[in-house]
Amino acid sequence: MSTVTLEGVTKAFGATTALDAVDLTVAGGHLTAVLGPSGCGKTTLLRVVAGFVRPDAGTIAVGGTTVEAPGTHVAPERRGVAIVPQEGALFPHLDVAANVAFGLPGRRRDRATAERVEEMLALVGLEGHGDRRPDELSGGQQQRVALARALAPSPGVVVLDEPFSALDAGLRTQVRTEVRGVLRAIGATAVIVTHDQEEALSMADSVAVMDRGRVLMHGTPAEVYQRPADLVVARFVGDLVELPGTKAGATVETALGLLPLHGAADVPDGPVLAALRPEQIRVDGRLERHGHRAHVDDVVFQGHDSIVRLTLTETRPALRLAARSQAPLRPGDDVAVRVIGPALAYPR
Predict the structure, then answer these.
(1) Which domains does the chain show, CATH number per domain?
(2) Radius of gyration of the chain (CA)
(3) pLDDT at residue 199 above 70?
(4) Cα dihedral sign for 238, 164, 103, 115?
(5) Which GO MF term does the entry hold, naming one (predicted)?
(6) 242, 274 in Cβ contact below 8 A?
(7) Is 90 exceeded by the pLDDT of residue 306?
(8) Residues with Cβ < 8 Å from 177, sequence gap 6 or more?
(9) What is the average pLDDT across 214-227?
(10) In what order do the strands lie in the sheet with 16-26?
(11) Burial of 195 (0-12, 13-18, 19+ CB in 10 A)
């Protein structure tokens, strides 16, 4: 179980800074998701850890050994870091067993290699598939073969570059659950790069949110979602309801009333932007219930619940909100809304 440590890692491509003095520690045996929009630097971060790209400054250590520093560069094949690329990148002319064996030193067709290949295929739930060609497998099976190939030489660290992006929604959920189970079963240290918030929050032990080459926040999925470090993180990780307000002590006055605050000491009193998650907005179809009057503009059904677009009718100018609800609401309904739980506040 190798810890990965980056300190002050910087990389520019011409006038574009892909990594800007990045500090990040991935604990041994943990799965860390690097989350951010396209172009934020997350794939470059993965590639400098793997050794495919040399940073301009900073140090990288894997398992306590410095693999990148001024005057030091350990070759990718000697770092003990395995990579699972997008879409698997299997060799189409080799069968599954040969693809898995390709990750082993020498790739000899001896008994020890064959046993290791079978062990890896069993680990990813593909026993008996060794003689199949990649084009005979589903997308999810191909991704599991790619993982088996990466794990075969027992690397200290596994890095996964948006490995589920080519899969359809239903298969993506299944395969990422399987992959998480495999990585946890062997206690692997893993880094997964993704732009999918649900994927990062559901898979990882910790989430590092990146933007413009910098790590804005690194914490548990719950911390990143419930206590985002700034408004950029809050807006990127899940939907956000934003309300102008005035902070006074541990509360904020908004169009939805006086709300308690998380982390009140972090923001000075005065004008702020209060932030809530849509699930904190409770909607009741009976106006006689306690709450603020609102008008339903749209309802987007999502199966387990619906996203309800609302306009507060008590405010001037009108204020628009989003809420999650399981109630059978329709556009045009007049409802009552109230807030559950504390808000976050950010300087306006």
Answers:
(1) 4-235 (3.40.50.300), 239-347 (2.40.50.140)
(2) 24
(3) yes
(4) positive
(5) ABC-type quaternary ammonium compound transporting activity
(6) yes
(7) no
(8) none
(9) 95
(10) 16-26, 4-13, 57-62, 65-69, 72-73
(11) middle
